[in-house]
Specification:
With about 450 residues, the protein is α/β, with parallel strands linked by helices. It has two domains: about 150 residues, Aspartate Aminotransferase, domain 1; about 260 residues, Aspartate Aminotransferase, domain 2. It contains 13 helices and 15 strands. Helix 6 links the parallel strand 5 and strand 6. The longest helix has 22 residues. The structure holds ligand PLZ.
Length: about 450
C-alpha cells in the first residue's frame, strides 16, 4: 500500500487558515452541529511524523498529536498497512457474535505491558469515556459498593457518568445535568497552587482525601477511586510526590478499587509506558485509549483477574468494541513503540523541551510554572499576582497557530499551554516549535 512520505519541515504558503480551509469551514457551519469545536480550523490533507499538511498546501508542526493519540506518528506505515490488510479480510463480525484472534492478542499485550505482574484480564471498547464507564461498572460489580471518588480538575469524558466524574463545568457539563449520583470530589495535589506550599502538598492532600472518605462517605461504601496519574485536560497537573502512593495504600487497606485513568498518559507518552510507573503505583484497573492504536478508535480496561472476572457473562460489551481494524492497528502501534524505543524517546523530548521552557520562565514573568514528564509538558501562564491568565494563553495560541504550530490549551482556568508532540518528531521541529512559542511570549 502506498503511504505518501510527508516532508518533515514547516511550510506556510497561505494565511492560516487558507482559502480552501475557509471555504470548507463555511460549508461546515451549515452541516455540522455547532456544539463541536475545532482548535485550529485548518482542514487536513495528510499527516506524518511531526507534520500536518492542510488542503492549502501548508505544513504545520504538530505539538498536539490529536490530543495524545498519534504517539507513533500519524499514518505510520506499519499501522496503516496492518489495518488495511485486516480491512481487506473482514471489517466487522462483532466480537460478541463471532470472535477473532487479534482481540485476544491485544488483550494479551495489554496484560503484559500494564504495571504489575499479577494475573490480568482486559476488555476492549471504543473511547476513553467508555473505558472509564466500564471501569466503574466493573468496580461496582466486583465490590457490591456504589460510591466513586474523583478529584478537582479531573477529566474523564463526555458521557453522562463521565461528565459527572469530570470537574470542569464549562464547556463539558453546562446545561447537561442531572448527573449520576454517588460521585464524591476530593482535592487534587496540585503543587503549584497548594496553599501551604508545594512541599506539603502531597501528604496534606492525601490526608484531607482520606479523612473525607472516612468521615463523609465511609470507606466501606466506596467502590472505586478514579484518578489520572497526571491530569490532562485539567492542566497537566502531576500529583505532588506521595499523594498517589498514599491513596493507593488507603485503597488497598479498605478494598477500594484503585482505577488509574491513563487514557491521555498511556503508551510511552510520559517517558514510561504508563504514568503510574513514575511512583511505582500498581493500579487495580487501568483505562486506556488514545495512543493505543496509532489513531484508530480503540480503548480498554485492564485489571486484576479477580475483579474483571467478577462481572456476570454478558454484563460487559458493545457492538464495535475491539473492532478488528483497530486491533490490527493496536498490535502494530505497540510493536512500533517497543521496537523504536519510544519510551526512551519521550524522555529525550521531555528533557529538550523542559530545559528550553525553563529559560522562558526566567525571561517572561507571565510563565508561572513549567512542568511535565516525558513528551507531556506544559507552561502555566499567570498575572503578576499569580492569578490564572487565560487571555495570555489565547494570544500565544493565536500567534503560534498563524505561523503553523499546532498548540493546545488546557486547565480548569484555560491558562495552561500544553505540548504533546508525536514521539517520532525530529529535534529540529521541536526546536522550531519552541522558537515560535518564545516569539509569541515575547510579543505579549
Ligand atoms: N480520560 C484522562 O484525557 C480524553 C478530550 C477532548 P474519549 N481527553 C480529550 C474533548 O474535549 O473531548 C480523555 C482523557 C482522560 C478520558 C478521556 C475521554 O476519552 O476517547 O474522548 O472518550
Amino acid at each position: 500500500m502506498a503511504t505518501t512520505e510527508v516532508v518533515q519541515s514547516r511550510r506556510i504558503v497561505t494565511e492560516i487558515p487558507g482559502p480552501e480551509s475557509r471555504a470548507i469551514q463555511k460549508r461546515r457551519g451549515a452541516a455540522v452541529a455547532q456544539g463541536v469545536g475545532s482548535v485550529l480550523p485548518v482542514y487536513v490533507e495528510r499527516a506524518g511524523g511531526g507534520i500536518i499538511e492542510d488542503v492549502d498546501g501548508n505544513a504545520l508542526i504538530d505539538f498536539g498529536s490529536g490530543i495524545a493519540v498519534t504517539n507513533v506518528g500519524n499514518a505510520d506505515p506499519r499501522v496503516a498497512e496492518r489495518a488495511a490488510e485486516q480491512l481487506g479480510r473482514f471489517t466487522h463480525t462483532c466480537f460478541m457474535v463471532n470472535p477473532y484472534e487479534s482481540y485476544v492478542e491485544v488483550c494479551e499485550a495489554l496484560n503484559r505491558v500494564t504495571p504489575g505482574d499479577h494475573e490480568k484480564r482486559s476488555i476492549l471498547l471504543n473511547s476513553g469515556a467508555e473505558a472509564v464507564e466500564n471501569a466503574v461498572k466493573i468496580a461496582r460489580g466486583a465490590t457490591g459498593r456504589q460510591a466513586v471518588v474523583v478529584f478537582d480538575h479531573a477529566y474523564h469524558g463526555r458521557t453522562n457518568l463521565t461528565m459527572g466524574l469530570t470537574a470542569k463545568n464549562m464547556p463539558y457539563k453546562h446545561g447537561f445535568g442531572p448527573f449520576a449520583g454517588e460521585i464524591h470530589r476530593m482535592p487534587m495535589a496540585y503543587a503549584y497552587r497548594w496553599p501551604t506550599g508545594p512541599e506539603n502538598c502531597g501528604p496534606e492532600a492525601a490526608a484531607v482525601t482520606i479523612d473525607r472518605i472516612t468521615e463523609q462517605i465511609g470507606a466501606d461504601n466506596v467502590a472505586a477511586l478514579v484518578i489520572e496519574p497526571i491530569q490532562g485536560e485539567g492542566g497537566f497537573i502531576e500529583p505532588a510526590p506521595g499523594f498517589l502512593p498514599a491513596l493507593a495504600e488507603f485503597c488497598r487497606a479498605h478494598g477500594i478499587v484503585f482505577v488509574a485513568d491513563e487514557v491521555q498518559t498511556g503508551f510511552a507518552r510520559t517517558g514510561h509506558m504508563f504514568a503510574s510507573e513514575h511512583e511505582g503505583i500498581v493500579p487495580d484497573l487501568i483505562t486506556t485509549a488514545k495512543g493505543i492504536a496509532g489513531g484508530l478508535p480503540l480503548a480498554a480496561v485492564t485489571g486484576r483477574a479477580e475483579l474483571m472476572d467478577a462481572v456476570h457473562r454478558g454484563g460487559l460489551g458493545g457492538t464495535y468494541g475491539g473492532n478488528p481494524a483497530a486491533c490490527a492497528a493496536a498490535l502494530a502501534a505497540l510493536e512500533v513503540i517497543e521496537s523504536e524505543g519510544l519510551v526512551e524517546r519521550a524522555r529525550e523530548i521531555g528533557a529538550l523541551m523542559l530545559a528550553r521552557l525553563r529559560t522562558f520562565a526566567e525571561r517572561f514573568d507571565v510563565v508561572g510554572d513549567v512542568r511535565g514528564r516525558g513528551a507531556m509538558v506544559a507552561i502555566e501562564l499567570v498575572e503578576g499576582d499569580g492569578r490564572p491568565n487565560p487571555e495570555a494563553v489565547a494570544r500565544v495560541l493565536k500567534h503560534c497557530h498563524a505561523r503553523g504550530l499546532v498548540l493546545l490549551s488546557a486547565g480548569t482556568h484555560g491558562n495552561v499551554i500544553r505540548m504533546l508532540p508525536p514521539l517520532v518528531i525530529g529535534d529540529d521541529l521541536l526546536v522550531e516549535g519552541l522558537n515560535l512559542l518564545e516569539e509569541a511570549l515575547a510579543a505579549l
